Structures are given as structure tokens and as C-alpha cells.
Amino acid sequence: MSLAARARAWRGQRRRAIIWEALTVAVGGSVAILSASALADRFWGLPPTARAAALAACGAWLARTLWTRGVSPWRAATWDAVLEAAQDAWPQARPLLASAWALQQSRADSGTSAQLRAEHLARADRAADALPARPLFSWTPSRAARACAAAGAVALAANVLAGDAASWRRALAPWNDPSLERWVDVVPGDARLDAGAPARVEARPNAEGLRRGVRAADLRLESRGDDGRWRTLPWTRVDADAAQWRLDALTQTLDYRVRWRGLAGPARRLTPLPPPRWRALAATVREA
């Protein structure tokens, strides 16, 4: 194998090592970040801002890794750097390789004769062919690559065991929250009731919600106070199929909504109707 062929092979080995290192760190770290975000959303219902922050962190990690472990080392893998590594690996060939490569790249003195140049290059080709066949560059995962690969594998395995596809979709598209109305049926919705009458709110996961992993025990009822803040109301009863909240007498307007993890349903209102007003009252008394 000639010196030029050997140099091309060595450079290819170096570039493959760079690619494997960059991909392992980039993909392993990204999978770890997104898997952690999806798993946290599965159990705690992350808000869209938190999921967006995790996605931004993943993008920043990808950009930084591809630059520092991909583009920058790739640009540094010049022919001179490859030949320098070969000379360090086989010091006995250093004088011949350096001078022959200089001749091949037309950097030798202009006074060198063509015959001497050809003889020198031929000797360099024979010396390159006699070098050991072992690779000059072989990829050995760095500590960072091993750590990222392990973190990504553990986080991904945890998602396979305990995660769900809906959480992954929210992690990858945090701005595209699905509507909770599609998964949970809430009655009575907006309603007007007699003042002082009993009130009841029931939330029941429908068939699609059950397929998405929605369970009645995971639903949360919230009411809006005078300050505009939403506060949790404890359910009166929670069954396997539905959750219910009861009030003995509705005396004031109640704004409520149902939440599941990071999703909130639309605000609904129970309004007490005022008692009827009498314009006139007449009574007739008859003697028994």
C-alpha cells in the first residue's frame, strides 16, 4: 500500500473515530434529557414552560457537542496532523515519511530532480507498505461518551417500563398541548342552579382517555378564588371510573376546572339563580 493510500486510510480512521465519539455523546445526552423530561411529565405533569426548557437544553447540548466533538476535531484532522500521528506511532519511519510527504505535496525544494523525487517517493511507498497493518486510529469511548450512553440507556429503559407515548409527544412538542376535554367528560359543565340547591361535579375519563392512561384517581378539581388563583378542591368520592364532588347548598358562583398532570380543562361555572321576586301578594281568608 502506497504512502498516499496509507494516509487516506489513516485520515478515514480518524474521521470515523470523531463521528462515533460525537454521535455517542450527542445522542446519549439528548436521549437522557428528553427521557427525563418525558418521565417527569408522566408522573408530575410538567407545565409547557418546563417541557420547553428541557427541549431547549437538549438543543443546546446537541449544538455544543457537535461543535466541540465533531466539527472542531474534524477540521483539526488535516493531512499534516495525520502524518504527525503516524510518525509518533512509528518513530523509525519519521524521517522518510516527513520528507516523502513534503515531496508529494510539492513542498520540497525546487532544485530536487525528478528522478531523485521519484526514487524517494518509491522508497517511502515501500516503507509505508512495510508498516504494521494495525489501525493508526481506533475509537475508544471517552469517559463522557460512556457516561452519556449509560445515562441515555437508563433513562430510556425507565421510560419503556413506566412511561407513555403521550408524555413523549408532549416532551418533543411542548407547545402542542392536547385538550383535556377529549379525554375527560365533566358534568354538569356550565350550569345555573337554584340558590341553596345541592351541586355536584363529576369527572369521568372516556374511552380515549383510558387509552391515554387517564385515571379518575389522578384527576384534580380546582376552583378559582376572588383573587383569580386556582386552588385544589378535594373530591368527595373517587371510584375506579369517576371522581365526584358534592356541595350541600350552592350560595355563590363557583368557577371550577379539572386538571390531569400538566393539562387543564376549560373553566366552567356553576351559577346560583336568585329567588323569585314577588310584585304583589294577595291572600283570601274564608270563614270555615
Overview of this protein structure:
With 288 residues, the protein is α+β, with helices and mostly antiparallel strands. Helix content is 50%, strand content 16%. It is built from eight helices and ten strands. It has helices spanning 3-44, 48-76, 79-89, 94-104, 114-130, 143-162, 165-172, 207-211, and strands spanning 184-187, 191-194, 199-205, 220-224, 230-233, 237-238, 243-247, 254-260, 263-264, 268-273. The strands form two sheets. Strands 2, 4, 5, 8, 9 and 10 form a six-stranded mixed beta sheet that branches. Strands 1-3-7-6 form a four-stranded antiparallel beta sheet. A hairpin with a 5-residue loop joins strand 4 and strand 5. It is rod-shaped, with a radius of gyration of 36 Å. The mean pLDDT is 85.
Outline:
The chain is α+β, with helices and mostly antiparallel strands. It contains 8 helices and 10 strands.
Features:
alpha+beta; 10 strands
SSE diagram, text form:
Blueprint: H1 3-44, H2 48-76, H3 79-89, H4 94-104, H5 114-130, H6 143-162, H7 165-172, E1 184-187, E2 191-194, E3 199-205, H8 207-211, E4 220-224, E5 230-233, E6 237-238, E7 243-247, E8 254-260, E9 263-264, E10 268-273
Parallel strand pairs: 2-10
Antiparallel strand pairs: 1-3, 3-7, 4-5, 4-8, 6-7, 8-9, 8-10
Helix pairs in contact: 1-2, 1-3, 1-6, 1-7, 3-4, 4-5
